[in-house]
Amino acid sequence: MDSSDISNVLIAIDTYTDDFTLGFKRYITLPSRIRLNVAYAHYLETGCLDYLPRIKKFLGDMTEDEYINWLKLA
Description:
Blueprint: H1 3-15, H2 22-28, H3 32-46, H4 52-60, H5 64-73
Helix pairs in contact: 2-4
């Protein structure tokens, strides 16, 4: 992702007003191609389709800098 995409994701997270966890907010604001790739990678790793609890924990446990660096690689 380029810097403008990353800043758009971070702005969307900050403006999300519902009472969801940070991990879910980070996941739901990702572009759809990245969300699909994350779901597919989880399925290939575990063989399970129930990826949302694991990815919410993964994204929620990251610091802001770790999350930004992860977005740069996506």
